[in-house]
């Protein structure tokens, strides 16, 4: 029953070691597939706070899959998941008025995300993470790895998606996207967590150096082109965006990513607004859930659970990114 407060996830050198996701089935259009893409069959459990889960929500929205795949959003702050042990994790509210944006689990009647994992596998010993992509027919978890869930949403549901022509992982850009994802994941998406959860100065120093080198590299790329792969938006942009949108309000303070804020990088800042303004993206962002979750749930790094004041940033204000595509 690991969480990030668990000493087993910290190396000798004091660095965070993120374990791999466990449920790795694929929804596929291939004949004979156990998990074929069917409207109404799958359900996505997310937290708005979680960058990995909310990238799935972003994909669901921009591909026009909200009618085909249902969604339940957890409460923003971790709570005890059982009376009989100390585990703290994602829970569902008992009514939809308990917290704005969060909903009870009317599909499985679960009180916690942990219960979903226990329904899917009696001997599961991993973390009880979101996202969870659930199969209503086989009553199990299809997949709990966001990087794979977004690929399925992008390509496997095109017969039922409202926006089937949008391809965020097009064949001609795949090698470039994979290469960018590799360093943006290690140094930025997961890099902020490596800064925040480091337990030795050396591990923090390494993570924070790699993080800001990678952000500088993005700034440089984005000073020459609108998106990471050129003039079309791709999966790599959605993945980067989910970290950038949390950066100034949370990561700068909570994870000590304090060398610079995103609003000090002219290209990255305008790019964040640009992605935010793509239809379907802003509704995958809930700043209240984001701020409350990090500052209140991570008691091992913020024991008094004080929610830090937020800078006042309007991501829907004008940006200058269309200068590249005029
Ligand atoms: N590899 C997973 C990571 C998901 C993940 O780490 N989610 C966090 C929230 S941001 C979580 O659910 N944590 C619960 C816990 O640690 O107990 C993915 O990308 O889907």
Characterise the protein shown here.
Helices cover 36% and strands 6% of the residues. The protein is built from nine helices and six strands, in the order βαβββαββααααααα. It has a four-stranded mixed sheet with strand order 2-1-5-6, sandwiched between helices. It has helices at 51-62, 113-120, 146-155, 174-189, 191-197, 201-222, 235-254, 266-276, 287-297, and strands at residues 42-46, 70-73, 79-80, 88-89, 132-135, 140-143. It has 326 residues and is an alpha+beta fold. α1 links the parallel β1 and β2 (70-73). α6 crosses α8. The protein is globular and about 50 Å long. Glutathione (GSH) binds at residues 3-4, 21, 50, 52, 89, 127-131, 144-147.
Cα-atom radius of gyration:
19 Å
The average pLDDT is: 96
Ligands in the model, by name, code or SMILES, are: glutathione
Strand coverage percent:
5-15%
Work out the number of β strands.
6
Assembly type of the shown chains?
single chain
**Poorly predicted ranges:** none
Secondary-structure-derived class: alpha+beta
Pfam family, one: GST_N_2
Protein name: Reductase
Binding site for glutathione: 90, 127-130, 145-146
GO molecular function: glutathione transferase activity
What is the gist of this entry?
The protein is built from nine helices and six strands; from the N terminus they run E-H-E-E-E-H-E-E-H-H-H-H-H-H-H.
Features:
single chain, 326 residues, alpha+beta, 4-stranded mixed beta sheet, two-stranded antiparallel ribbon, globular, binds glutathione, Glutathione_S-Trfase, Glutathione-S-Trfase_C-like, glutathione transferase activity
């Amino acid at each position: 029953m690991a969480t990030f407060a668990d000493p087993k996830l910290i190396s000798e050198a004091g660095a965070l070691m993120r374990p791999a996701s466990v449920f790795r089935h694929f929804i596929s259009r291939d004949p004979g597939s156990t998990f074929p893409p069917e409207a109404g069959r799958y359900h996505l459990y997310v937290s708005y706070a979680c960058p990995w889960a909310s990238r799935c929500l972003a994909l669901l929205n921009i591909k026009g899959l909200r009618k085909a795949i249902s969604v339940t959003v957890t409460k923003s702050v971790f709570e005890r998941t059982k009376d009989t042990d100390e585990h703290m994790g994602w829970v569902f509210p008992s009514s939809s008025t308990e917290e704005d944006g969060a909903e009870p689990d009317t599909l499985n009647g679960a009180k916690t995300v942990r219960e979903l994992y226990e329904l899917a596998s009696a001997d599961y010993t991993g973390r009880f993470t979101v996202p969870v992509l659930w199969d209503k027919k086989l009553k199990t978890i299809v997949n709990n790895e966001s990087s794979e869930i977004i690929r399925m949403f992008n390509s496997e549901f095109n017969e039922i998606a409202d926006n089937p022509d949008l391809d965020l992982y097009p064949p001609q850009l795949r090698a470039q996207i994979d290469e960018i994802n590799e360093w943006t994941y290690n140094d930025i998406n997961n890099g902020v967590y490596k800064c925040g959860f480091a337990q030795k100065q050396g591990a923090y120093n390494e993570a924070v150096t790699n993080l800001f080198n990678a952000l500088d590299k993005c700034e440089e790329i984005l000073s020459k082109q609108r998106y990471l792969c050129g003039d079309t938006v791709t999966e790599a942009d959605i993945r980067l965006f989910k970290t950038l949108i949390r950066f100034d309000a949370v990561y700068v303070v909570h994870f000590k990513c304090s060398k610079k804020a995103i609003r000090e990088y002219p290209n990255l800042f305008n790019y964040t607004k640009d992605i935010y303004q793509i239809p379907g993206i802003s509704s995958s962002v809930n700043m209240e859930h984001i701020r409350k979750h990090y500052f209140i749930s991570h008691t091992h790094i913020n024991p008094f659970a004080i929610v830090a004041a937020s800078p006042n940033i309007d991501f829907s204000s004008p940006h200058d990114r269309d200068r590249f595509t005029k």
